[in-house]
Amino acid sequence: MKLGKLDNDTLKRRILDKFQKTRSESFGAPRIGMDCAMLDFGGDLIVTSCDPITSADWKHIGALSVHVNCNDAAAGGAEPVGLLVTLLLPPDATEEMIDRIADDLQEAAIAANVDVLGGHTEVTDAVTRVTTCTTVLAKAPHGAVLKGAVPGDAIVMTKWAGLEGTMLLATDFRDRLSDLPDALLSSAQSFSRFLSVVPESRIAIANGAHAMHDVTEGGVLGAVWELAAQTHCGAIVVRDAIPVREETARITERFGIDPLRLIASGSMLIACPDGTRMTGALNQAGIPAVVIGRVTENGFAFSNGTPLDPPGADELYRLF
């Protein structure tokens, strides 16, 4: 099978369609485009999600484990509270590596205002590189549950395409980019400072967001498809409106990678009735944001009518 996430058709047929809602506490069975599950035990809702980090250099894996999972909860309109982290180490790992990863986890947790609550750590020959799988626990008032995108909504994008992927390429494949300026590569490696979308989540909720989706595997275009598919809608995207930083453009060009389908943790898509109001509030808070398209009744396309395909394997996996 191909590396990366299963395509949505296979995921639905082989996995998701097998699961049903049987408990009154749960909000529903999992479905395409939904990264979080919600439980009602009385009081605030419990929101949870889990994600692995499998393709990052181990020096980044702590921060990515924290931010990628907190971002899922924030995209669901919830406040992240704590994390459970499973850390799997190959036999050639060292205690110094474990120290560095744990320090990275704690530093990122402090920045995200969450606690690392526990988890599991194991050395195993089942993995060939350091791997984590993290579960986030978050809370949300009942009234904070987002209803989903509706036709006519503006699609607002924060920050830039390909953020996480650019950082990983500049770090893991730097030896293949030696002819690019050191300043450009160092800037790309510093994109880790942009990885959290928790701040824009709070602003989006306060300014009328109908739905949010953080941009992970499959990039901006994959995230647009999933954002609309949550509520069985479609979308039109203006390709030229999608912001791409110079670092991303030059590095992805070197590898023949589409930056719009490259993993982009740190960017958020927001469906809302008033794109001008939303981008104004985000920009005022120092978070770059633009309108890149709109939600439609059905169908997916670029502004020129070219069909927009469902998300497939992330562009990053082409290099492995």
Summed up, what is this model?
By secondary structure, this protein is α+β, with helices and mostly antiparallel strands. 31% of the residues lie in helices and 22% in strands. The strands form two sheets. The chain has a six-stranded mixed beta sheet with strand order 7-9-6-10-8-11, with helices on both faces.
Structural class: alpha+beta
Helix content: 25-40%
Please state roughly what percent of the residues sit in beta strands, choosing from under 5%, 5-15%, 15-25%, 25-35%, 35-45% or over 45%: 15-25%
Order of helices and strands: HEEHEHEEEHHHEHEHEHEE
Outline? globular
Distance between the termini: 13 Å
- Rg, please? 19 Å
What keywords describe this structure?
320 residues; alpha+beta; globular
Give your account of this protein's structure.
This protein has helices at residues 8-14, 61-75, 95-112, 163-172, 182-189, 198-206, 219-229, 246-255, 275-284; strands at residues 37-40, 45-53, 79-89, 115-123, 131-140, 154-158, 211-214, 234-237, 268-272, 289-296, 300-302. The protein is built from nine helices and eleven strands. Helix content is 31%, strand content 22%. The protein is globular, with a radius of gyration of 19 Å. The strands form two sheets. The chain has a six-stranded mixed beta sheet, with helices on both faces. The protein has a five-stranded mixed beta sheet with strand order 1-2-5-3-4, covered by helices on one side. With 320 residues, it is α+β, with helices and mostly antiparallel strands.
